[in-house]
Amino acid sequence: MKEKAAYKKNDRVTVTIEDMGMDGEGIGKADGYTLFIKDAVIGDLVEAKIMKAKKNYAYARLEKVLKPSPFRVKPLCDYARVCGGCQLQAVSYEEQLRFKERKIFRDLVHIGGFSEEEIEKAMEPVVGMETSFYYRNKAQYPIGTDKEGKPVAGFYAGRTHSIIANTDCKLGLTINGAILEAVLTFMEQNHITAYDETLHKGLMRHVLIRCGFATKEIMVCPVINGKDFPKAEEFIDCLLSLDLKEKGEAWKITSICISSNTKDTNVIMGNGFEVLYGKGYITDHIGDVAFRISPLSFYQVNPVQTKKLYEIALDYADLSGSETVWDLYCGIGTISLFLAKKAGKVYGVEIIPQAIENARENAIINRIENAEFFVGKAEEVLPEKYEREQIRADVIVVDPPRKGCDEKCLNTIVRMQPKRIVYVSCDPATLARDLKYLRENGYELRRVRGVDQFGQTVHVETVCLMSKLHVEHHI
Ligand code: SAH
After folding, report:
1. Between the CA of residue 25 and those of 4, 44, 214, 445, 460, what are the distances in Å?
2. What pTM did the predictor assign?
């Protein structure tokens, strides 16, 4: 057998990329080593330079693509590699979807302990996007100053705090670029300074743009290091004079807000906002439910795919009109209100008080009267409502953040014995961990489906249906 080569820094290797890791990096094997190579695409033959060598694996830098993979495509964005926001732009969209499906499959097997046959039986084809670019309804651009002292908007160069100018992120709408250019010109003409992170000086920190895809309403919200925005009237006039067209359709800025953030941290938004123009929110629709979105509200960033995601969740919930449904981690009540039309009663639980305020408001504007919302942690509110008030559940939907559900929450769900649990997840690893718990406690996996909400990135959303196993009481 060949002696294992002792790789060291700066060694060059030639390797075929056979797989892709969690962050989209290429993985290949050479001389018994596993090599992790960022920017290499599955199927490539590449030359790479070792950057960091361990006993059985090494990190290497892509030097040259010797034979490109059939899945390799030219990134649409010139900055794809330096930016780091899109990890998969050099991979064809079909292959991106296969990558995401594999990720779900493997986590369910390796972390969830399901057999491959079980997953194959339950898994439905991943739901891809029709257009895998220009899908985001929210853009947050940091503002800085270039070498000539001119204000620029762009993105932070991977893991640094220096801004590379680019107002044309391909994940968002092209009208974002026109708005940003107008803001930058306005800053220059009116001597409005850009924020400097290291000195903690200068006014303009970020510009947030939110677009209602269904209504064509736009909100622009500068985040400033100060209390007042100078020349607010002129700023409003400047923005309102823009002629904004996306694919021939006219969009309108209906809300301009300012958020003050004078803290020396990485958090983008301030705690509150002031309305300069309009109502302080824009409206958007998912299906036939309307939502008001303020600068600080959480709202799904890909409304086209969100509708598909919620439709699948609704299908998995299989409601007949009389059920009691819980929507845990409900945010501004999007899933709750979507379900309410088909349920007897929906209870939503969410930790952020403002989001619950939005949820209640959204119920009112949609004339939905069978939804009730509670502020608090799911793992605290659910046991309390179950134990003290004996509120039951026919179906429970959960849509937790990346860290998944607290075990106390899962334990209460199991004790409540809903017929069905619909798990919406943005992280297959914690999903798999939580499904394992549910399966060990009387539920079986019936359906799994990936829904791509974040084309060009490694993130994937998954919906699962766990059903209560029939319990035989009379043996
Ligand atoms: N279902 C919503 C939001 C999902 S994001 C939608 O589709 O839009 C996850 C939500 O869980 C966030 O709003 C976050 O604030 C909330 N959250 C985080 N930890 C929580 C906890 N322990 N209990 C309840 N909600 C929590």
Report:
1. 23, 12, 36, 30, 16
2. 0.93
